[in-house]
Amino acid sequence: MPQTESTAANNKRIAKNTIALYIRMILLLLISLYTSRVILESLGAEDFGIYNIVGGLVAFIGFFMSSLINASQRYINVGLGKNDEQLTRIYFRQSFTILFLVSLLVIIASETFGIWFVMNKLVIPESRHFAAFWVFQFSLISIVCAIIQVNFLATIIAYEKMTMYAYFGLIEGFTKLGIAFILIYSSSDHLILFGALSAANSIIILLFHVLYCKTKFNICSLRFICKKSLVLEMIKFISSNLFGCFAWSVGIQGTNIILNIFFGPIVNAARGIALQISSIVNKFTDSVMTAVKPQIIKSYTRGDIEYMQLLIMKSSKLAFFISVLIAMPVLFETDYILKVWLNHFPDYTIEFSRLIIIETFAQVLITPLWMAANATGNIKRNQIYGRIFTLMSLPLSYISLLLFNNPVIAMAMCTLMNYFYWCYCVYDIKKQINLNIRKYIKSVVFPSITIISSLLIVGICFNSLYRETGFIHFITTTFVLECFGLIVVFLLLTKGEKQIVNNAISKCLNKRLIR
Predict the structure, then answer these.
(1) Please, what is the angle between helix 129-158 and helix 65-81, to 10°?
(2) Residue 384 CB-density burial (10 A; 0-12 exposed, 13-18 middle, 19+ buried)
(3) How far is 78 from 3, CA to CA, in rounded Å?
């Protein structure tokens, strides 16, 4: 097949997968907005904060899960990129064996160090110690299920079965909606009940993934194997990624623990809400990244570095545009959105939400670069030297709290370090695949700075002239920012990208005229 046809087919597949993921994301977003409000109201700010800090601690103990996900997805994609089903099956079995052993280690670490830390070091009201203990146990079940599920989820994404991936996400979303309704009408301890139902939900989702993959994919064999050379290769890859995942977990959960020690669970609740708001932006951009990731890895496996670089730059720019268009109205209208969504919310929620959204902009640019490093397998510099910036957010946050006793400054440190990490990722990928820095700045950095600065100026000017508050102000601000943003986005597109947009609009209009 000619290269142009192959590229066109890949682009079409990416577009189709992205559409399926967007439909999934929109439905999940609607469900999430409702369930988040119900869960916060049912638990209360204090119990919600306890759930975030205790559940987050279990996730921290399982910090290497991210490195396992990366390894599993990479090797399955490499096997498929080589069109070698037997090799891919071996990769799957070996990953499954390692994941099973890791889940046992997580259980041991959690039931020893983890439970001691929760009961002796975290700031939790004495009356809620019993509930915190059981939340920890249920969170452990959820994280173990997530670890075992890694291989099956990686297989679905590697085979680019995004429609089924979307269905599983919807099933999980609707079961969470069911949990929210149960909390409303239950008279039991809501914190313990929420933890138990979340654990049951994790088990159900795991079973769905196992049954589907066992039925559809020949490579999914639940057998333990140990091929020494492959184990050593995978362990080398995982160990290089391990420090990066550790640094990331320390930056996220370590800061959460420090905030708990200084201010108690109420501030953890504020941070938990802020993370949910930023996850809304992430859901939109993740749709692009999830669709592109298999093609980035496969293009590297085939030796098509030019197409790989094109995917990195195109996905970076597209995902950044999407994130900015969604996030800018939220940044300017955070107070109003939180009041409508939650009615009552803890102090610092507005400041935390804005900072985490700003941090998300950096994460959007980091993700394609990290995918490229994952494809090459040379992740040592990225995950060890680069993640030092992420790790530095913990001592810097602690020092800032000692000096200023202000949680907002601590959160700002985390945001700043993420931008330093992005800069290092650009340098690392330039070394690995000879990324054209000048072209990257022109295609990604310049458009990103242009659209953000343009919308900030418009938003600030509009708010200084139109000082009303409430629903009308929210709608008007959103309308102005989105319209102006779309104009800027169109102007920043390349000639070829503009032609694609024009063709899509013309096709849509022609269909309507025919009808």
Answers:
(1) 10
(2) middle
(3) 20
Q: Which two tokens stand for residue 39?
A: 């869960």
- In whole angstroms, give the CA distance from residue 30 to residue 51: 22
Contact 292/14 with Cβ under 8 angstroms?
yes
Closest CA to 193 of 179, 213, 212: 179
Per the listing, tokens 């104009």 go with 487
Please give the Cα distance from 92 to 224 (Å, whole number): 10
Q: What is the pLDDT of residue 17?
A: 54
User: Which residue has 């089903």 as its token pair?
Assistant: 85
Q: Which two tokens stand for residue 33?
A: 């907005």
CB 145 within 8 A of CB 206: yes
Q: Tokens 């093609």: give the residue.
A: 295
User: Which position has the token pair 């570095």?
Assistant: 305
Question: What do you get for the CA distance between the two ends of the chain, in Å?
Answer: 37
Please identify which residue in the block is written with the tokens 């959460």. 256
* Alpha-carbon span 100 to 210, nearest angstrom: 14
Judge contact between 203 and 60, C-beta under 8 A. Answer: no
Specify burial of residue 81 (Cβ count, 10 A radius: 0-12, 13-18, 19+). Answer: buried
Query: What are the distances in angstroms from CA 446 to CA 199, 320, 420, 439?
Result: 45, 12, 17, 10
Smallest Cα–Cα separation from 373: which of 424, 322, 446?
A: 424
Q: Which pLDDT tens digit goes with each residue over 440-476?
A: 999 999 999 999 999 999 999 988 887 777 788 888 9
Q: What is the mean pLDDT of each run of 10 residues along the chain (515 residues)?
A: 49 56 63 74 78 68 60 76 80 85 86 84 82 88 86 81 77 84 85 90 91 88 79 74 70 78 81 77 69 79 86 88 87 87 82 90 89 81 82 87 88 90 92 91 93 93 80 88 90 76 58 49
Neighbours of 111 (CB within 10 A): 14
Q: Do 325 and 281 meet the contact criterion of CB atoms below 8 Å apart?
A: no
Q: At 302, is the secondary structure helix, strand, or coil?
A: coil
| Phi/psi at 507 (5° precision) | -65, -40
